[in-house]
């Protein structure tokens, strides 16, 4: 099965349609599938529902799709660094489903495991619980959260082999792995592709069976949300 594609546009060919649901990996600006996000922007696909830990920042990450108003709804846990997100939300141009970070990760993991829902204490007695089923276990209240299963997952890894086995690096491992399983098809971009058998099997974070399409998106520039520096101490 052919998994390696020449670029992001080719890897997404035939997969995009208006109104689709996308799971996007990444944590802040770390480990975001930026080449695939750019290709979705260039394709003009609109009315998107996107599940992601965050919505990028202005002009970076998913912020690019917000800027072009291609996003109808965001399912996120942290959105505090995006002025355009704030503007669209307050103007009622964007539907937002806020979800506690751990709950969002578990909703995606559950969706990928074929679990339609689960009960959690997180959010009980808060606005997060509004409209959700509440059930008692051992005298404690729990709320029902639905698993997330999307039309498409887009993720970024560090290394992959030609069979699609992936290794994530440090913070980029957050959300990319659970997002990868939570959809009908997963498209991944990585910094390097090596021959099958090169990667240590014990170090693989995502088996290639989950990855249907793959691109080498290098070179990448490491972007930093907030750069804090201090004067170098004298010798």
Structural description of this entry:
The protein has six helices and eleven strands. It has 235 residues and is α/β, with parallel strands linked by helices. It has one domain (8-216): Glutaconate Coenzyme A-transferase, CATH 3.40.1080.10.
Summary tags:
235 residues; alpha/beta; Glutaconate Coenzyme A-transferase
Describe the structure in brief.
By secondary structure, the protein is α/β, with parallel strands linked by helices. It is 20% helix and 25% strand.
Number of domains: 1
Approximate helicity band: 10-25%
How many beta-strand segments? 11
Class by SSE composition: alpha/beta
Encode the helix/strand succession as letters. HEHEHEHEHEEEEEHEE
Topology at a glance:
Elements: H1 8-12, E1 21-24, H2 34-43, E2 48-51, H3 63-67, E3 71-76, H4 83-90, E4 95-98, H5 101-112, E5 117-120, E6 134-137, E7 140-146, E8 152-161, E9 166-167, H6 176-181, E10 186-194, E11 213-216
């Amino acid at each position: 099965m052919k998994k390696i594609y020449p670029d992001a546009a080719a890897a997404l060919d035939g997969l995009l349609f208006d109104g689709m649901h996308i799971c996007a990996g990444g944590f802040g600006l770390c480990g975001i599938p930026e080449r695939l996000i750019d290709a979705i922007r260039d394709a003009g696909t609109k009315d998107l529902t996107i599940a992601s830990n965050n919505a990028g920042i202005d002009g970076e990450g998913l912020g690019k799709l917000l800027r072009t108003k291609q996003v109808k709804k965001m399912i996120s846990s942290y959105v505090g660094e995006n002025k355009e997100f704030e503007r669209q939300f307050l103007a009622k141009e964007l539907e937002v489903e806020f979800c506690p970070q751990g709950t969002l990760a578990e909703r995606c993991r559950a969706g990928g495991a074929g679990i339609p829902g689960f009960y959690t204490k997180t959010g009980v007695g808060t606005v997060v619980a509004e409209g959700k089923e509440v059930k008692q276990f051992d005298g404690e209240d729990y709320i029902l959260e639905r698993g997330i299963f999307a039309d498409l997952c887009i993720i970024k890894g560090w290394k992959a082999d030609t069979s699609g086995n992936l290794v994530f690096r440090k913070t980029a491992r957050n959300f990319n792995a659970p997002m990868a399983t939570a959809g009908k098809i997963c498209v991944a971009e990585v910094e390097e592709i090596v021959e099958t058998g090169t990667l240590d099997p014990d170090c693989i974070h995502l088996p290639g069976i989950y990855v249907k399409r793959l691109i080498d998106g290098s070179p990448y520039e490491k972007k930093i949300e907030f750069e804090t520096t201090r004067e170098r101490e004298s010798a």
